[in-house]
Write a structure and sequence with these properties.
The protein is built from 15 helices and four strands. The protein is mainly alpha-helical and 376 residues long. A two-stranded antiparallel ribbon has the order 1-2. Strands 3-4 form a two-stranded antiparallel sheet. Strand 3 (282-284) and strand 4 (287-289) form a beta hairpin.
Length: 376
């Protein structure tokens, strides 16, 4: 997913805008090179060093408006997926399995691209087109990633050596987080075009990747983290990815302005009741009711708690159902000073991570000798 180094080789990809488009109308684009936040610029510099400045994926650019959330997300992804002892290709397959099962085109495009630029074009095409890899080991990894996104989760842990297990768990969990944000705040805005992103990318010339200046090493992104990050998951075994996931948990659940405690508790309760997976659709008069579960989940909530909880719950369980109208209703009812883009990102992140915590408990239960965060 991420490339190391700052130089370029081959034919350069077309220059793209650094500024990330706003996910919904009436929001302000953020340019990390001029935004004035030292932390944001430091994160951007590391992202650009690994991806190339014109190739930073949309799911990361989306978070420019919340630097602390971007920081924790990047560190968690890098320390789980990019570095470590497990083969990068194998972890990309797990991530692609999650993204494909969750139907998140932007995140799937990122992992398909990584497979191709890392020298696996046939495998990338197979994953992109929804096929099954010919290599049984590759197929099992893709299937395991996909199984983490369905009710009851996978019956067993990933088919990998025990000492590689934390990297695969971390990869799956961070992908679950990003696919929820991507489906809610990117796919909803992109509409039908989102379905064509993977094909459009692979249909043209492969983008040039940065020339590595050195092999990426575990822990190199931890210097970006500031402040307390909370307890690390014991299953991480003290590896840097544990600090990244702990930071992500802290950043995503720190939503004092976006959600009252009443709304937070409702979101946790409903997401736990569905085990972090999409609710089953209800049938009424022979018609499917896509949001019946949501209306029931919001019963009893009053005032601004209802639209805020709705945004968080939709992001957690059915992110593709989040609409611009949901967001605008939340903005109109949110407390003064708590309805900007950063608040929206934190609100969506709270919902996404609440679901991820459920997925984590399910995955750890299938991995002997592992455990979740002490606070889980």
């Amino acid at each position: 997913m991420i490339n190391s180094g700052g130089g370029r080789r081959g034919v350069a990809a077309p220059e793209l805008e650094t500024v990330v488009p706003s996910p919904f109308p009436h929001t302000t684009p953020v340019d990390p090179t001029t935004a004035g936040s030292g932390q944001l610029r430091a994160i951007y510099d590391q992202l650009a060093d690994h991806f190339g400045a014109s190739d930073i994926p949309a799911e990361f650019r989306l978070l420019y408006g919340a630097p602390e959330l971007l920081c924790a997300t990047w560190v968690a992804v890098r320390e789980s997926l990019v570095v470590g002892a497990a083969p990068r290709r194998d972890k990309e397959l797990v991530a692609a399995g999650v993204a494909r099962a969750r139907g998140c085109a932007p995140v799937l495009r990122t992992h398909v691209r990584a497979l191709r630029t890392d020298g696996h074009p046939a495998l990338a095409r197979t994953v992109r087109d929804g096929g099954t890899p010919g290599d049984p080991g590759h197929a099992r990894l893709l299937d395991w990633g996909a199984a983490t996104a369905v009710p009851d989760g996978p019956p067993v842990g990933p088919p990998v050596p025990a000492d590689h297990l934390p990297e695969f768990l971390g990869t799956a969990l961070t992908t679950h987080f990003l696919t929820r944000l991507g489906s809610a705040l990117l796919s909803a805005r992109a509409g039908h075009d989102a379905r064509d992103w993977p094909r459009r990318f692979l249909g043209g010339r492969a983008a040039a990747r940065p020339e590595p200046t050195h092999a990426p090493r575990p822990g190199e992104s931890l210097s970006l983290l500031v402040g307390a990050i909370g307890p690390e998951p014991s299953w991480a075994g003290g590896a840097p990815l544990g600090a990244g996931l702990a930071a992500l948990r802290s950043a995503a659940t720190d939503t004092d302005q976006a959600l009252t405690e009443t709304a937070r508790e409702r979101v946790r309760t409903i997401v736990a009741a569905h085990d972090g997976r999409p609710p089953e659709l209800e049938m009424t008069d022979r018609h499917l009711v896509a949001r019946g579960w949501l209306y029931a989940a919001l019963t009893g909530l009053r005032g601004a708690d209802r639209p805020a909880a709705a945004v968080a719950l939709l992001t957690a369980l059915t992110p593709s159902q989040l609409t611009a109208a949901d967001v605008e209703f939340w903005r109109l009812t949110a407390p003064e000073g708590a309805s900007d883009d950063a608040a929206l990102l934190h609100l969506a992140a709270f919902g996404a991570y609440t679901a991820v915590a459920c997925v984590e408990r399910s995955l750890v239960a299938t991995a002997p000798g592992s455990d979740t965060h002490p606070r889980s």
